[in-house]
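ok, trying the design again with the full structure, not the truncated one.
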């Protein structure tokens, strides 16, 4: 059985591990990031906004879960706006809070989402962008480029994980012994943190690198790490299938 190292947080790795297991792929879980709520934010009055953007499941959950508790009518108010989601998983997360979305892009990238919106829909309008601490800022930049205004609300932070020393030794040993056939990265931070935590600059020649998409692959390229596997569509299922096709 081939073994894949998964670097997602434990509570968010289930769908990918399940997808990999369908292809008879074993998994080692080594989270390199931790996600936590950012305190102190508040949702402004929405009447002056034309739309709201969500680019991850985390942005949905860390905004909507506290609002659902303190402001039960929040979904009705958000649905008065155009709600933009970067991909299927984000749209499904919004649907759990009874929030409907505009048409989704064919690829789950912020650039593809913004390309679908006509410049005249942005010009002279104001938008909300729900983000984490490591957002690349693509959406606010595009809104500004087309003459719109964008307010940003940071609702979660992305921190480097703190695995115990013996876990670092174990993972490093598995790599050195050739027992990891593929490492999968699902965001730039999972990749950057992986190499920082293990204090390495390269990987064994036979270990393949899988990336969820072009942004993550770009971060790997910046570290002189080549991407061997990238799915056609950035989902757990698509990623697992691409890995299986490459390893078997």
């Amino acid at each position: 059985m081939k073994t894949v190292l998964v670097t997602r947080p434990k509570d968010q790795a289930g769908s990918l591990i399940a997808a990999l297991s369908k292809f008879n792929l074993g998994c080692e879980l080594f989270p390199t990031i931790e996600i936590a709520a950012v305190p102190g934010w508040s949702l402004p009055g929405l009447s002056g906004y034309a739309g709201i953007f969500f680019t991850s499941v985390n942005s949905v959950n860390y905004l909507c879960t506290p609002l659902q508790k303190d402001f039960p009518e929040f979904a009705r108010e958000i649905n008065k706006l155009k709600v933009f989601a970067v991909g299927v998983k984000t749209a499904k997360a919004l649907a759990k809070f009874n929030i409907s979305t505009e048409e989704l892009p064919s690829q789950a990238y912020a650039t593809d989402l913004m390309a679908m919106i006509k410049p005249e829909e942005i010009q002279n309008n104001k938008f909300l962008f729900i983000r984490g601490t490591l957002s690349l800022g693509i959406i606010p930049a595009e809104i500004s480029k087309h003459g719109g205004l964008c307010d940003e609300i940071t609702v979660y932070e992305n921190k480097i994980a703190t695995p115990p020393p013996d876990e670092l030794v174990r993972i490093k040993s598995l790599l050195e012994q050739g027992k990891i056939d593929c490492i999968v990265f699902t965001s730039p931070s999972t990749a950057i943190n992986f190499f920082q935590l293990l204090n390495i600059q390269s990987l064994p020649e036979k270990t393949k690198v899988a990336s969820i998409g072009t942004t993550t692959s770009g971060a790997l390229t910046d570290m002189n790490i080549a991407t061997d596997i990238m799915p056609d569509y950035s989902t757990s299922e698509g990623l697992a299938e691409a890995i299986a096709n490459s390893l078997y």
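Keeping the full-length input from now on. The mean pLDDT is 95.
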